[in-house]
Amino acid sequence: MDRSQLHIAILSSPGMGHLIPVLVLGNRLAAHYNIKITILAITTSSSSAETEFLKKSTLTNEKKTIEIIPIPSVDISHLINSSTKVFTQLRLLVREALPKIHSTIASMTHRPDALIVDIFCTQILPIAEEFNIPKYAYHPTTAWTLTLAIYCQIFDKEIEGEYVDLKEPLKIPGSKELRPDDVVDPLLDRSDQQYEEYLKLGMEYAAFDGILINTWEDLEPETIKALRNNEKLRSILKVPVFPIYPVGPLRRTVETNEPDEVIEWLDKQNNKSVLFVSFGSGGTLSTQQMTELAWGLELSQQKFVWIVRPPSDGDADSAYLNSAGKETRGMPKYLPEGFLTRTKDIGLVVPMWAKQVEILGHSSVGGFLTHCGWNSTVESLTNGVPMIAWPLYAEQKMNAALLTEELGVAIRPAVLPTKKLVKREEIKGMVRMLMYTKEGKTIREKAQKLKMSAENALSVGGSSYNSICELVKDIQSRLL
Ligand code: UDP
Q: What is the pLDDT of residues 137-152, one digit of tens each?
């Protein structure tokens, strides 16, 4: 190994939604700066998609500048019960994996020059300090959610009762106001363990040498500015100045050209005629909601590709950490009777998983009904695809608000899908508006404009490009 080469280790928490952005970040650093990247991927025993993805990523990494070291899964069953939320579980999975992470770093012959850790891995701080390695946190979503995570310490002291019961929006200096209905899941119930974990996360963030965000200057100019200049916030929180690196939009590029049923189907459709429907790597709908969505799509008579997974009447993210063992073959049995036959000429239903990046980049796709997971959102924005925002869990309600109210590239149901059943007529109306109507035209045009803005951010001199240069410079300046 070339010891003069900069070496960065990136730690990823479990789940495809975390692993994917970490790999993308690693690729970007490795490709642009010839940096040696080691990805420490905390795995779970139950996610077969993750294991497959890791194997493939290792195979396609021909340059060998990226090494992927899976951190074996840990057992947290004795620490959780049936009501433990995914957010808490992810924090626990990382906490329990800390000894393995420690021994992995200790055994590296070429110790990393810097550590970048994703959102659930901020608990690694003492290890980074012990090894005296500069440490950066990677917040894989928006600047707006980062301000909330940090500012939450203040809300915790100033606000009494539940945030969701507030009559007024929550105000974060320099940021868009946050409606109580849109708060992130960990803030929904202050007596739940995930609330405490979220507060800790915000405090840990502030102790890093810098924070990378998967956003770009033109997407959230005011919030990024506020994060950079918010001396008042820092003095209240008693935290030092930490640089902000808007390195986004980080998104996967098309990886394979293998024949694929969905792509072949899309090849036969008209330009921008297809609505893509997907709820991320683990989002599920209730049985009743699934029926309404199926009817809404059928009534709209719009061409569609729908990635379905079995309905769940529990939490919408209940499949997030256990997607293995579920039905992956055969036509889904949980759709309305006759739906597949009646829609066979307009739609394609795919169980569990499809190549989303390839689909969103296909010229036949003209709209995306999405759960607003940030990776999915970025993949849509960078392809200029307008959205129907259907948030389910985590920070997705904030993403939906940003997309609809601030950026104007999406529409959403009148009432949040997490609060009320979205009926078939409303779904039909939204689909037709997004894909056809005059009102939808402005949204479609704005989506195209944002695609250009994303390309600018990534090009030489753009905000993403500059942020990565500044990050590398900062790491180099800290070398002993
Ligand atoms: N994804 C995919 N195929 C699927 C479902 C999801 O490739 O059938 C990818 C998607 O492209 C995105 C990631 O999985 O990169 C999901 O991340 P996101 O942040 O959107 O949502 P999460 O799954 O974390 O809720």
A: 999 999 999 999 999 9
Ligand 1 atom nearest to CA at 352: 8
Residue 225 CB coordination number (10 Å): 14
The C-alpha atoms of residue 400 and residue 389 are separated, in whole angstroms, by 5
Task: Report d(CA 140, CA 319) in Å as an integer.
Answer: 20
Location of structure tokens 């500015």: 225
Tell me how far the alpha carbon of residue 390 lies from the centroid of ligand 1, in angstroms.
Answer: 14
Q: pTM for this one?
A: 0.93
Least Cα distance to 213 among 447, 396, 471 occurs for 471
Residue 259: the pLDDT is 86
DSSP per-residue string spanning 108-165:
-SS--SEEEEEGGGGGGHHHHHHTT--EEEEE-S-HHHHHHHHHHHHHHHH--S-GGG
Give the model confidence (pLDDT) of 470-480 as tens digits.
999 999 999 86
Ligand 1 pocket, CB under 6 A: 16-17, 20, 278, 280-283, 307, 353-354, 356-357, 373-376, 379
Burial of 51 (0-12, 13-18, 19+ CB in 10 A): middle
Q: In what order do the strands lie in the sheet with 211-213?
A: 66-71, 36-42, 7-12, 114-118, 135-139, 211-213, 244-246
| Mean pLDDT of the region 453-466 | 96
Q: Whose CA is closest to 234, among 202, 197, 212?
A: 202
**Half-sphere exposure (CA, 13 Å, Cβ side) for 322?**
9
Are the CB atoms for 357 and 379 separated by under 8 Å?
yes
User: Does residue 221 have a cis bond before it (omega within 30 degrees)?
Assistant: no
Candidates 118, 182, 185, 192; catalytic one: 118
Inter-residue contact 397 to 317 (CB < 8 Å): no
Pairing of strands 387-389, 211-213: unpaired
How does residue 328 score in pLDDT terms, banded at 50, 70 and 90?
Answer: very low
Return the best residue to mutate from 12, 13, 16, 87 for the ligand 1 pocket (most ligand atoms within 8 A of CB): 16
**Cα 11 from chain centroid (whole Å):** 16
Q: What Rg value do the Cα atoms of the chain yield, rounded?
A: 22
> Greatest CA separation found in the chain?
67
Catalytic (active site) residue 110? no
Coil, helix or strand at residue 212 = strand
- Report the distance separating Cα 385 and Cα 447, nearest Å: 6
CA angle 5, 255, 116 (to 5 degrees): 40
Name the residue with the closest Cα to ligand 1, atom 17: 17
Active site residue 18: yes
CB atoms within 10 A of CB 191: 7
What 8-state DSSP symbol labels residue 178? B
